[in-house]
Design goal:
By secondary structure, the protein is mostly helical. The protein is built from 16 helices and three strands. Strand 1 and strand 2 form a beta hairpin. Helix 7 packs antiparallel against helix 8 and helix 8 runs parallel beside helix 13. Pfam families: Phage_integrase (PF00589). Belongs to the 'phage' integrase family. It comes from Luedemannella flava.
Length: 359
């Protein structure tokens, strides 16, 4: 080996370097040739629509506005152009330009959701070979520290007020009361209701199948009364076929509801109940209320299962692996919550039920 030929200390690499030297080719030449043979990295304007079409509806709704902003800002730039600092700076700009709401908290949620949207975008860029994992700029940008929730469990009197407004105002009180009852019994997220179909009702065992964020799916017990009203709602507003398809919750004209029904409902509640407007009460407050009640009444394991949460090893230590509630325990909680017997309930309880209201 000539004195000019570099050595690496590894025989196989040294042999390759000798061969390259004889051919008059440098390692940099190989890298440049490989780069030239690859197709160009797509621009944001080219790649964002592809990702938007590939992700679930919930992800599209959550991140769509942020992706639109990125395309507006960097549409002609390629994915491997922005630095972590530029991504962070755009997040600060989005935070400053946010719509200020009564229950806003300084824009930290907007910035956090933007970074999550960018990580989602770049993860697919990595998966498709457009960006190397080590060069992923979004992964190098820290999310703002999440603030503690300002929600708390609503007392029975407040729940009664909400149901009273829903029952006596609006253009479809029957629909709104059914929605409130559904969220109060299941403590599900909005997606759980919007994704519910007629085939997701197990009338015999009083179970509903909930499909929520992250592609999660579970069967949740409900009271016989709620199950009866859900089936009746489909009978009158759906196509009436037990194996019919499409969303269950519908307007009188048969059109499925969207998230806009929630906006209309809670805006109306806020107009009649100033305290609800001040605190930004929404369907998620019902979830918070019911899960809190279940935890206080039946313990952590059942509350976690009722909420559809999956335990992690760091959540409560190794013991979390063994703390699991079965469906009969959840059904028992529903039975006490509603004051009705449930076909899957395992035992009776002396717990005081919460006021579910609604239908």
């Amino acid at each position: 080996m000539s004195a000019e030929t570099p050595t690496s200390g590894r025989p196989e690499i040294d042999a390759a370097l000798v061969l390259l030297a004889k051919l008059g080719v440098s390692p940099a030449d190989l890298i440049a040739a490989a780069a030239a043979s690859r197709p160009p990295t797509p621009t944001f304007a080219e790649f964002v629509p592809q990702v938007r079409d590939a992700v679930p509806d919930g992800t599209r709704r959550a991140y769509g506005s942020y992706w639109n902003r990125v395309v507006q800002q960097w549409g002609t730039r390629r994915l491997n152009d922005p630095t972590p600092l530029e991504i962070e700076q755009l997040g600060k700009q989005i935070r400053a330009d946010r719509v200020v709401r009564r229950n806003g908290r300084g824009g930290s949620s907007a910035e956090e959701n933007y970074i999550a949207a960018m990580r989602c975008l770049y993860q697919r860029a990595v998966t498709n070979g457009h960006v190397a994992a080590a060069d992923n700029p979004a992964a190098k940008v820290a999310k703002p520290r999440r603030q503690a929730s300002t929600r708390w469990a609503l007392p029975n009197a407040r729940l009664a007020e909400i149901n009273q407004v829903a029952a006596t105002t609006g253009n479809d009180p029957q629909l709104d009361l059914l929605l409130l009852r559904f969220h109060t019994e299941t403590a599900c997220r909005r997606g759980g209701a919007l994704n519910l179909g007629r085939t997701d009702l197990d009338e015999l065992q009083c179970l509903v199948r909930l499909r929520e964020k992250g592609g999660t799916e579970r069967w949740q017990p409900v009271s016989p009364t709620l199950m009866r009203h859900l089936a009746d709602h489909w009978e009158h507003r759906g196509d009436g076929i037990v194996q019919g398809t499409g969303p269950l919750f519908r307007y009188r004209n048969g059109r499925p509801i969207t998230h806009r029904r929630y906006d209309y409902l809670w805006t109306r509640v806020g107009e009649h109940l100033p305290w609800a407007a001040t605190h930004g009460i929404s369907a998620h407050w019902l979830r918070h209320t019911i899960i809190t009640w279940v935890e206080r009444t039946f313990g952590y394991a059942i509350a976690r299962a009722y909420a559809g949460h999956t335990a992690t090893g760091s959540e409560i230590g190794a013991t979390g692996t063994y703390i699991k509630a079965d469906i009969s325990e959840i059904a028992t909680a529903v039975s006490v919550l509603t004051g009705e017997p449930h076909p899957l309930a395992g035992h009776d309880s002396e717990a005081i039920p919460i006021r579910v209201g609604g239908v």
